């Protein structure tokens, strides 16, 4: 199995687990390191997709969606460190 096929398969497995846990909204700040997960999410019609160019802004959007919907919201970002900074402020 190629690395690309392996990454896409794992991305599909992760997204399937998210749907089983009630995630309907997925917030995406696309970047090169998150490409397999972003592509798999874009192809999955089970999610309502939200995109933003800035990870901090996306973090605020995700928190707002979770608060209003009272459901978990998934976030795809390139850097976990940027996400941590966004939810602290």
Automatic annotation (TrEMBL):
Ranges where the Thiamine pyrophosphate enzyme N-terminal TPP-binding domain occurs: 10-79
One example GO MF annotation: 2-succinyl-5-enolpyruvyl-6-hydroxy-3-cyclohexene-1-carboxylic-acid synthase activity
Protein species of origin: Escherichia coli
E.C. number: 2.2.1.9, 2.5.1.64
Keyword Nucleotide-binding included in the entry's annotation: no
Protein name per Swiss-Prot or TrEMBL: 2-succinyl-5-enolpyruvyl-6-hydroxy-3-cyclohexene-1-carboxylate synthase
The organism's taxonomic lineage, starting at the top: Bacteria, Pseudomonadati, Pseudomonadota, Gammaproteobacteria, Enterobacterales
Example GO biological process: menaquinone biosynthetic process
Pfam family, one: TPP_enzyme_N
Enzyme class per UniProt: transferase
SUPFAM superfamilies reported for this sequence: Thiamin diphosphate-binding fold (THDP-binding)
Keyword entries, A-Z: Menaquinone biosynthesis, Transferase
UniProt xrefs under InterPro entries: THDP-binding, Thiamin_PyroP_enz_TPP-bd_dom
